[in-house]
Design goal:
By secondary structure, this protein is α/β, with parallel strands linked by helices. It is built from 4 helices and 10 strands; from the N terminus they run E-H-E-H-E-H-E-E-H-E-E-E-E-E. A 5-stranded mixed beta sheet has the order 3-2-1-9-10, with no helix packed on it. It holds the Pfam family Metallophos_2. GO terms for molecular function: hydrolase activity; metal ion binding. Belongs to the metallophosphoesterase superfamily. YfcE family. Its cofactor is a divalent metal cation.
């Protein structure tokens, strides 16, 4: 199982709830699609019992501080390509909608994971697009993450 989240916007309470959920569900990997915001959030992500893959978002202005804080947890970049259970996954924050669409249409990926809009959206198709919504809950009032079965590409939306 993979835990997917985005847009935590340094909401420590939301991050704690997500980490507890992911540990309880014994996920093998957590993917964060950007907007961690502050280096102090790394302390909460260190409590994960699984590997973390995370990327930068458009609000991650303190990149050097984030890289330093997260250096023992994960390597932060703007874009990631990973493979899980023979499924090819692209991770992008998603500020450029045309780029997200192009990644999905490329046929190269089984799943494109994105954030940025703070809107929960899962599009099934040849390439699945997953936006887990906002873990922080600041705009919608809903703190959401997604649990993804990487074998069958089935999923569950979880409200924290």
């Amino acid at each position: 199982m993979i835990g997917i989240m985005a847009d935590t916007h340094d909401n420590l309470n939301s991050i704690r709830k997500a980490v507890q959920l992911f540990n309880k569900e014994e996920v093998e990997l957590v993917i964060h699609a950007g907007d961690l915001i502050a280096p102090f959030t790394a302390g909460e992500f260190q409590k994960l019992n699984s590997k973390l893959v995370a990327i930068f978002g458009n609000n991650d202005g303190e990149r050097d501080g984030l890289k330093k804080a997260y250096r023992d947890i994960c390597h932060l970049e703007d874009f990631k390509e990973i493979s899980v259970n023979h499924k090819s996954i692209a991770v992008i924050h998603g500020t450029n909608e045309a780029l997200v669409d192009a990644l999905a249409r490329s046929g190269k990926y089984d799943v494109v994971i994105r954030g940025h809009t703070h809107k929960l959206e899962i599009i099934n198709g040849k390439t699945m697009i997953i936006n887990p919504g906002e873990a922080c809950g600041y705009l919608s009032g809903n703190e959401t993450v997604v649990l993804l079965d990487p074998v069958h590409l089935s999923y569950e939306v979880v409200y924290l």
